[in-house]
Specification:
The protein is an alpha+beta fold. 43% of the residues lie in helices and 15% in strands. The protein contains 16 helices and 12 strands. Strands 1, 4, 9, 10 and 11 form a 5-stranded antiparallel sheet that branches. Strands 6-7-12 form a 3-stranded mixed sheet, covered by helices on one side.
Length: 345
Amino acid sequence: MAQVEFQYISSFTVTDSLLNLTPYGASDLGSQYVPWVWNQVKQNNGIYAIPQDSGPMGNLYREDILSKAGITTAPKTWDEYAADAATVKEKTGVYMSNLASGQAGQMLGLLWQAGVKPFGYDGKKGVKVDVDSAEAKKVAAYWQDLIQKGYVSTDPDFTDSWYQGLANGKYAGWLTAAWAPVFLQGTAAKTSGLWRAADLPQTPGVKAASGNWGGSSDAVLKTTKNPIAAYELAKFINNDPESTLMFANKQFLFPTSNATLKDPQFVDKQAAFYGGQKVNELFANISTTVDTKFDWLPYMDYAYSSYTETVGKALAAKGDVSAGLDAWQKALVAYGTQQGFSVNK
């Protein structure tokens, strides 16, 4: 059995490395998981893993910094977010947030929320690459504008300086995933009580939506000599109520099962770091708004590395992000073709 992040499952199925769990009873479990999460482990009518944790996205923000800028509530729309970003910079000198230049997962989560479908895979040799669509470029233009105006930074994330920035008030917020609230408590412990959590800003007139950043599953390797035992273990640790609650409350893996996402022992917890807010309940509700249909390429490792060399470079240089998407598109098409895939848009 192996832990595999959602976006890499197809990279293992294309090499026929994972066991299809359908014959072992996995298809009976689908209704017990959030629909979009269950879709992540399905491929060509097969089920290749049991979901373990996920990362629906929200907005973690410093209430004290926004208050100093005269802002009393988190921005509800992306237009409000941009206006608040200008005010925060003017009044406090602080960045509204950080869009890490090399973090493809964060950008893909924002594209996911916007309804962009950058990838597709038919489970065989057919792939879709459409990272430079008009919809994707609209999202890119939004962030390019905020970055070039100095309202949003593009610092590399998960580095010492970035950790210090979170702890020292360099950023007024972090658009991030459901695994981040606990992570932040350790990274910026001295700021306890100053943070709050909210939904991602939305687009008016459109159904409430979020994207996902991260998340993993437990798959069974096809080479196993004990397929039944391996499947039963994957099933038990990610389906048994006591086990999933333990993962959620003690290991801080954001749950994927409907039962745990509704369990009072999880959703009713009040987080002192967030002023007593029920952050788990907020993200549990956000999880229901993630678009079910979002696919990955069977070469996401290359997709992430080439993102850094194309879009990431444009972000870091405060340059043309649209051109970065064009370059990323070209790189992904070329690589897919070289690997023997039939690439379409």
